[in-house]
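Box 3.1 A note on notation
Throughout this textbook, protein chains are presented in two layers. The first layer is the amino acid sequence; the second is a token string describing backbone geometry. Keep the layers aligned when reading.
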Amino acid sequence: MNSVAIVILNWNGRKYLEQFLPYVITHSQNAEIVIADNNSTDDSLSFLRLHYPSLRVIRISKNEGYSKGYNIALKQIEAEYYVLLNSDIEVTENWIEPVIAFMRANPDVAACQPKILSYHNRNAFEYAGACGGFIDYLGYPFCRGRIFNTLENDCGQYDKCLQIFWATGACMFVRAAAFHEVNGFDDDYFAHMEEIDLCWRLQHRGYKIFCIPQSRIYHIGGGTLNKLSPQKTYLNFRNSLYALYKNIESRYLFVIIFLRLCLDGVAGIKFLFTDSYKHSFAVVRAHLSFYRNVRKLHKQRVELKKKKKSCSLGLFQGSIVFHYFILGKKKYSDIFKNRS
């Protein structure tokens, strides 16, 4: 059994494999590299056969998305640690070692992420994870280095290893035994927010999540669904409600869900008045999907509660929406002065 398996989930990402796979191979000498292909319709597979015939490729019969695609692939890979890596990432020298060393020294840590910088603006944090993820009590995610669409420059201000709430799915180091203990990602998510749900469930079992900034990578972002996609809007709003309902530990669950639905409504109206009616409709679709599936989500919530070993740490009890839009606090360090 390999100690570390780097697993790249690919869907029509031939150009990214050509551009970034050489970096992965050069800087990952002691790890197995596996490409899990989500039934690509481009020439990804022929490219791999021609240029990287020795790499293991797992072929998935249809595009199952991020969640189920990884679940299918990881059941077929034996390793102590998985590194789930987006295809549009440039890794750097020594990107694996500090994270794995930290996880070996801390067996209660189930998942980690590196510092994630922008490929196109290499001094700035990248949207998908920045320097470690958090979430507020209404289910809004934010990061050290990124709150909503405000991205900070990296000046070393967040170079401290820190316990976080969620590690990004763009580059997630996860202990294989812990991943399978919680049955992996939720297949229903397809893509977006599934890593937050996974990290939340891992914390319910008593595990911790960390960011290790001594590992650094560069991410393009938006390789499959760009930020202008109404489908991405739909998945983000829907999956956020799913994760919140399933996982939040509060006697005020229905009050919290009601407040979140109201704020989503405000976002939907804003979309409508900015000529983004497709995104407005995506919010409506997300809410309808939530209502249709609330019974299933409640059953999952009950099952999670039965298996819970500890309370989640790091859930921000304030409102990141209030701090950002009302108080004008655009940086993580403005809100958490002693937790950088």
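The chain has eleven helices and 14 strands. Residues 230-314 form one domain.
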